[in-house]
Design the sequence.
């Protein structure tokens, strides 16, 4: 971000008559660096910005705004001089900002706000900015794209005699812990394209072990530590998409990785270790110094709970850090840091701090070999996949942890075999958020041939939806005189899972059908609870015969619960009977079993594009 500030300053001519720049550094308190009358050349200002170092501490924008009003804006503004403040932040201020921002605006200052990344709060940005048109957002990699927007907005009021450059006087600029101020006098409307590289420098690593098939247990850092001993594991898909891009543990005592430690992996004072984790078991060690006991260690203590403890060198324990935010059976970017200067330990998940604790001075127990997957002292073993263990002898910042995220990634190899074009184009996939339930006639009277055709119909329907946890979820129930819930919405997160369950289906024992009872069973066991906001509920009933039980009341209960009901009758099932169950007449279909697949596209299009109807 310092590169961003320097590029921004370079847009304006710096002199006694034109742009003035002042800088304030802040954490819990504001630290004055230089006023507007300190430097009058661009080179001197850029050198001063280059020498800035971020101090540690919290984010107190309110205090910084109040100090800036006293330090940089004493008295009334000079004639023909515009005051502009640009506030950059990547986090949430820990104090109130509305009052200091209002007083700064009363002092004649126009305030811009730039929120970076995802850690800011938009409501807080609105309290700081002059209005909504003065709010900008960007990622860390795209900071350079907003320079022209802010510059053009700040230079909107030219004087009658504009110069060839953007002649600006006193503008104010804040970067989380950095304030720079300019005031604009005049600006010609010229378009300038600027590209800014805002990369973060990473410190040297103690070790980097990718743990994939290509590099196996080798250390790819400059330290060239001994290769890890890999026992009883296999290779699986990694977070970068490669087929053999990670090491998979079986959750057994003879499935582990051990890294020798000849002194180069002994952090002792401060440490950061980062690793990609795909958890598929219950409990077990991810990273554990000391194969025979407990040094500094990171464990899984339940399906989603991370457990981090920094041990003293003499065996004394510290208070652990825990987090229940890990995603089960998914890739997670996990990190742990301890800083000796502040005494603070932090647990990171996907580049965000999820637990923090002040431990004081700790001499870290990192003078042992490292075990991953299993240790001799415990009967709990890690089951899942890991990728790219990185070790640093310093505590990394959030931006550095984010920068190291893709350190071990390799490009996914392209397939060597030519891809043959299908003879028929694949169907258009519906990406709507739908809970799609099927209620299938599974009585003996249906017959095995008709039942197989119904299953093929369900497969074809599922093929036309984007089946995953965040899009379409599928559930299925068979009914005859009794009911059987084959799988719920929470168990069908892919088409492959649904297809595997459909292959196992067979007819139920009973020959009689009870449709009314089946509809009530679906309401209680398939569509439980209240509907989720933004997710539609759809039920498809496929039956081969009419029943004499009263289906009107159960159907009304389903409609009242916000469930859209389609009915598909096979053979001689009357439309009148199906109409009693369906949402309306446009949700009723009658076909013979052989032509059942011809209505798949019609029903799919109505589900995907219709807003749905509820009674």
Sequence:
């Amino acid at each position: 971000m310092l590169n961003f500030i320097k590029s921004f300053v370079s847009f304006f001519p710096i002199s006694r008559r034109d742009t003035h720049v002042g800088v304030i550094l802040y954490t819990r308190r504001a630290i004055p660096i230089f006023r507007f009358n300190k430097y009058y050349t661009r080179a001197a200002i850029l050198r001063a910005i280059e020498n800035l170092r971020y101090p540690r501490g919290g984010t107190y924008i309110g205090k910084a705004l109040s100090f800036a009003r006293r330090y940089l804006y004493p008295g009334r503004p000079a004639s023909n001089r515009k005051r502009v403040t640009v506030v950059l932040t990547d986090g949430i201020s820990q104090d109130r900002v509305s009052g200091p921002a209002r007083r700064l605006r009363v002092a004649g200052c126009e305030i811009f706000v730039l929120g970076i990344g995802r850690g800011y709060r938009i409501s807080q940005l609105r309290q700081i900015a002059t209005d909504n048109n003065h709010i900008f957002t960007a990622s860390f990699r795209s900071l350079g794209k907003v320079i022209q927007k802010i510059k053009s907005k700040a230079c909107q009021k030219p004087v009658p005699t504009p110069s060839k450059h953007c002649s600006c006087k006193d503008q104010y600029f804040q970067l989380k812990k950095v304030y720079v101020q300019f005031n604009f006098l005049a600006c010609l409307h010229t378009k300038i394209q600027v590209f800014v590289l805002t990369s973060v420098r990473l410190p040297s690593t103690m070790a980097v072990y990718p743990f994939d098939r290509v590099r196996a247990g080798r250390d790819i850092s400059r330290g060239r530590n001994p290769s890890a001993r890999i026992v009883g594991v296999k290779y699986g898909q990694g977070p970068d998409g490669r087929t053999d891009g990670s090491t998979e543990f079986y959750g057994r005592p003879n499935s582990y990785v051990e890294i020798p430690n000849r002194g180069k992996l002994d952090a002792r004072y401060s440490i950061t270790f980062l690793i990609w984790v795909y958890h598929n078991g219950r409990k077990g060690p991810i990273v554990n110094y000391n194969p025979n006991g407990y040094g500094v260690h990171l464990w899984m203590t339940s399906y989603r709970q991370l457990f981090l403890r920094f041990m003293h060198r003499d065996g004394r324990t510290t208070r652990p850090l825990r987090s229940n935010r890990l995603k089960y059976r998914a890739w997670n970017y996990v990190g742990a840091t301890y800083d000796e200067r502040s005494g603070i330990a932090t647990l990171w998940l996907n580049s965000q701090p999820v637990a923090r604790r002040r431990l004081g001075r700790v001499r870290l127990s990192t003078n042992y070999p490292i075990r991953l997957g299993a240790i001799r002292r415990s009967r709990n073993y890690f089951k899942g996949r890991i990728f790219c263990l990185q070790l640093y002898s310093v505590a990394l910042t959030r931006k550095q942890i984010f920068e190291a995220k893709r350190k071990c990634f390799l490009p996914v190899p392209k397939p060597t075999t030519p891809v043959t074009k299908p003879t028929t184009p694949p169907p258009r996939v519906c990406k709507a958020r739908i809970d799609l339930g099927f209620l299938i006639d599974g009585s003996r009277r249906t017959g095995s041939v008709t039942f197989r055709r119904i299953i093929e119909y369900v497969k074809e329907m599922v093929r036309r939806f984007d089946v995953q946890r965040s899009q379409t979820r599928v559930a299925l129930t068979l009914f005859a005189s009794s009911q059987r819930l084959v799988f719920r919405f929470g168990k069908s997160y892919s088409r492959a899972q649904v297809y595997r369950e459909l292959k196992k289906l067979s007819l139920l024992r009973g020959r009689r059908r009870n449709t009314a009872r089946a509809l009530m069973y679906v309401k209680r066991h398939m569509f439980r609870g209240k509907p989720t906001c933004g997710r539609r509920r759809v039920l498809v009933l496929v039956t081969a015969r009419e029943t004499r039980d009263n289906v009107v009341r159960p159907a009304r209960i389903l409609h009242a619960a916000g469930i859209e009901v389609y009915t598909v009758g096979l053979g001689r099932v009357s439309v009148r009977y199906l109409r009693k169950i369906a949402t309306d007449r446009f949700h009723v279909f009658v076909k013979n079993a052989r032509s059942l697949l011809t209505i798949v596209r019609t029903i799919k299009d109505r589900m995907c594009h219709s807003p749905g109807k509820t009674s």
